[in-house]
Amino acid sequence: MGLKIEVDETNKQATREAVIRLRERTGMNRKEFCEYFAIPYRTMTDWELGNRSMPEYLLRLMEYKVRMDLLEEEKNEES
After folding, report:
1. How many CB atoms are located within 10 Å of the residue 75 CB?
2. What is this structure's pTM?
3. Which of 19, 65, 12 is nearest to 45 (CA)?
4. What per-residue confidence (pLDDT) applies to 7?
5. Nearest to 33 by CA among 21, 42, 44
6. How many CB atoms within 10 Å of residue 54?
7. What is the pLDDT of residues 39-49, one digit of tens each?
8. Which of 53, 65, 41 is nearest to 16 (CA)?
9. What is the sign of the dihedral through the CA atoms of 28, 31, 36 and 40?
């Protein structure tokens, strides 16, 4: 039992750190990031502070969207 809780806390911490890194890589502040993804500010704050767990699948989707948008921007700049 104790091990499962520890693993869950480790995943929660890793996801928390990953969402912060993703936001920082975009150069957006928290408010801009929330508007970009249409996520309530309070939810994002709770994820970043570790008060709530962000679903891992959502983090993967957010990373994908950021990558695709960056690729689109690069493609448009080349044209």
Report:
1. 9
2. 0.79
3. 19
4. 43
5. 44
6. 20
7. 999 999 999 99
8. 53
9. positive
